[in-house]
Amino acid sequence: MTKPVVSIVKFEDAYHSLRKALELCDGLSGLKKDDKILIKPNLVSWDFNLPFPPFGVVTTSAVMAALVRILKEEGFSRLTIGEGSLMNPRPMGRQIFKVLGYEKLAEKYGVELVDFNEEKFTEIDFGPIKLSVANRALKADKIINLPVLKTHNQCKVSLGIKNLKGTINRRSKTHCHGKDWDLEHTFPHLATRLPVALTIIDGVFVLEKGPGPTGKAYRKNLIIASTDILAADIVGAEIMGYRAEKIEHLRYFAGLTGRSLDLQNLEIRGEDLNAHRQFIDYDWEWQEGDLGPIGFAKRGITGLAIRKYDSSLCTGCSGMYNPMLIMFMSAFKGKPFPNVEVVSGKRQLASPGFDYTVLFGKCVCELNKDNPNIKHAIALKGCPPSIKDLEEGLKEAGIFCNYDEYVNYRHYIFNRYKKEEGFDLELYSIS
User: Fold this and answer.
1) What integer pLDDT is reported at residue 4 of this predicted model?
2) What are the CA-CA distances from residue 42 to residues 1, 146, 222, 377 (Å)?
3) What is the model's pLDDT at position 89?
C-alpha cells in the first residue's frame, strides 16, 4: 500500500518555497484543468477598530498569492477563494479580503472572492450531527485547504480538518459547541464529505495558545503540504509537539475513515521533521479550584471565581472571553471583588455561596434561568456579549471596569511583534 506523502519545506520565498512543497508531494496531481477549485484559507476574524496582530492567526497573503500564481501558471483558471469568517454582527468577509489584499488577486488573476456568510447553505445529515454547509464548498470540484500552523485552546491544534469548520453557517458553528456532545466529534465529519484535494499548512508563523490574537506567535518558516488532509494534520501536530493519537479530533476522524495515526505510515519528504519539532502550548493555566487564570492569582485578585471555559463555549463568546478577563483586571483596585462567580458556555451551572453570578452569554443564561443557587444574576444575554454589556452589567455589583486598559492591552499584544524579529506585516499584503 502506498504511503501518503507529506512535504515539509523551509519558507524562504513564498513562491519558490511553495512550488517546492507542491512538487515534493505531487500536490497538483489530483486537479484537472477545468475543475472548479475553491481555496479555503483561515481568515477566522479581524478587528477593524483596535490593533490586530495577524501572525499565526490568519493565512499569510504571501502564501495565498503564491498559490494563486502557481495555479494560474499551471493552467487552472476556475479559482474561487472562500471563507466564512466570524460575523460582527454582520458578515465581514469582504472587508477582510480587502485588508489582506485579496481584491488585487481578483483583479490580476480573475479569482472570485466569496464570503460564505452572504450565500446559501445546505443542511447535511452526518448521522450524529446535522451541519449546514456552504453550497460553494459542496459544489466545488476540488478544495485546496490553506490553514495556519496553530494551537487551539479547546482542541489542542487547529490545522486542515479544523479549518473546514469555516465552511458552515453561524448556527452550525454554534451547534458544534454542544451541551451534550464533544466539539471534537463534530467538525471532523466535514472532511468526510468535502472534496479536499490538497492541504497546505501555512507555517510561516506558529501560534501558541491560539486560535486568536491573544495567543503568542513565533516565526517558524515552514510550509507543510499533502494531498491527504489527515497526513498533513498528523505532521503539523507533530511539529508542534503533539502526537496525533492525543488529539481527539484526529483520532475521531481516523476512526470515521478507518485510518492509522502512526507517523511511520507516512512518507515525509523535504525537511527533517525532528529538526523542527517544538512544543507549542495550547492551554491557558488556571488556578486550583477553578478560580480563574493563574495571572489573577499573581496579581492578588480574590473574591472572584471565573470558571474555565470548556468546549461548549462557541467561537463568538470565545472571542469575547479574553476581553472579559482584561476588563475584570482593569476593575481590580487591590481589594477583593464582592464574592462573584462567572460561568459560561452550555454546561456550566452556577454554584451556591456567591453573592453575584455573571452569566456570560445567551446559552449560559438560558441554562441557569431557574438555578436556585443564584442570589443576584448579572445576565449578559448577548450572542456574544459585548464589552459594553459587560461593563454596564458589572456596575450592578459595584465593579467598575476601565475600557482604556483593554485598549492599552490590545496595543501591547500588537506592539510586542517587531519587524526586525521577522514579524513583517507585508506578509499580509499583496502588491
Assistant:
1) 98
2) 32, 7, 16, 37
3) 78
294-315: per-residue pLDDT in tens? 999 999 999 999 999 999 999 8
User: What DSSP element (H or E) covers 34?
Assistant: none
Q: How confident is the model at residue 75 (pLDDT cuts 50, 70, 90)?
A: very high
Cβ distance 361 to 380 under 8 Å? yes
Q: How far is Cα 153 from Cα 241, in angstroms, rounded to an integer?
A: 15
pLDDT number for residue 219: 98
Exposure class string for 321-330: b at 16+ Cβ within 10 A, else e: bbbbbbbbbb
The CATH class of 5-282 is alpha beta
For the record, the C-alpha cell of 51 comes out as 490593533
- Residue entry with cell 496595543: 411
Q: What would the grid cell of residue 89 be?
A: 454582527
Q: For 247-281, how does the pLDDT look when each residue is reduced to its tens digit (9 = 90+)?
A: 999 999 999 999 999 999 999 999 999 999 999 99
| Among candidate residues 79, 5, 8, 9, the one with its CA nearest the CA of residue 267 | 5
Cell 447535511 identifies what position? 124
Beta partners for 269? 7
Grid cell, residue 341, equals 462567580
Strand-pairing partners, residue 223, are 9, 202
Please tell me the pTM assigned to this model.
0.97
- The C-alpha R_g of the chain, in whole angstroms, comes to 22
Which residue spans of the chain are classified as CATH 3.40.50.11440?
5-282
C-alpha distances in angstroms, 391 versus 59, 185, 308?
A: 33, 35, 20
Alpha-carbon span 57 to 158, nearest angstrom: 10
Q: Are 252 and 213 in contact (CB under 8 A)?
A: no
Cis peptide before 89 (omega within 30 of 0): yes
Average pLDDT, the chain: 97
Q: Band of the pLDDT at 85, cuts 50, 70, 90? A: very high
Q: Report which residue type is found at 30.
A: G
Taking residue 35's Cβ as centre, other Cβ atoms within 10 Å add up to 17
Answer left, alpha or beta for residue 342, where phi above 0 means left and psi between -120 and 50 means alpha. beta
Euclidean distance between CA atoms 360 and 314, whole angstroms:
12
186: its cell numbers: 463534530
Task: Find the angle CA(214)-CA(63)-CA(146) to the nearest 5 degrees.
Answer: 70
Question: Which DSSP letter does residue 245 get?
Answer: G
* CA–CA separation, 272 and 279 (whole Å): 16
